[in-house]
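WARN retry 2 of 3 for item q-0093 after timeout on previous attempt; input resubmitted unchanged.
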Amino acid sequence: MRLACGCFIISPAMLERLASHASLDAETREAIANTQRLEPIWRKLRVAHAAASKAHQKATRVETALAALPDAAAYNCSHTENLPGTPVPNPKASSDQSVKNAFNEANGVAKFYHDCFGRDSVDGKGKTLVSSVHYGKKYDNAFWNGQQMVYGDGDGKLFVDFTRSNDVIGHELTHGVTQYTAGLTYTDQPGALNESISDVFGSMYRQWSAGQTADKADWLIGSGIMGPAAKQQGYTCLRDMADPGAKHCVSPQPVDYKHYIPHGDPHDNSGIPNRAFCLIAKTIGGHSWEKAGKVWYGALTNKKATKSMKFKDFAHLTVAEAKRQFAADPSVAAAVTKGWKTVLVL
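OK item q-0093 returned
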């Protein structure tokens, strides 16, 4: 089966910037070119697939009790571009570390959503979580294709195995959650919100897995997939939610709305709401998923959330959710409002 649609951890623009480095050898450049080759197909088809998912969800919406954790499955593409690949029996005990990582972390993300937000899989209805590893040859990306997660091995120099970073796995699965909730379109501000929400919940999952409080977390995205060549150039992560414009990021981002990039790639402008969440979580204190995360999840699943909502629309929803969920603690809504004001959205 060929690809349906895709939301990536690394944007094409980011790959293009990396490819311009004179220090890269021909083999690494070829890996980047092969990764970029497939991207237009995914972007063109993902809109239709997301719309179909949203329509089906509305037609079949029923209220159900929270079920047990969803099933998970792992497949091996064996360096082809065919999905889902060959099924892996007993992936939890596999000797293939990529298989084990993808399977175990998918289960971990499912438990995170189940325990922290009362959500039953990405669709809220127990959808089986399918992960395919060893996609393509030295493929420099990971993505949600509208139905499952897909992970490349990286080129070994700029990036390594994309299953090594559990926030990447949390990020990709959250694209599924967004698809089945607000259904944010993948352009301009809604697209940046789409990417930001995946970063937010991917980072929270990483913190939850480590038992970290907001003040102890590093708020880096993708630090586990940095290859030796990237590290030699001073890169420590893809993005930094606490400091989006930092030079140690592979892709520096705007830090506030004053520096918003009109018609920019969703991965670029996502730094603005990313920083807002980080500021809010730190101001509230404690574990990010306990208050700030519940506010974000409430806004994402709010009936007033639309596929075309902009930063300010989402910000207002988060303030409303903070007041509703934490009516007895007005400091939460105050922190949410202050965070959005700091990044010049409110």
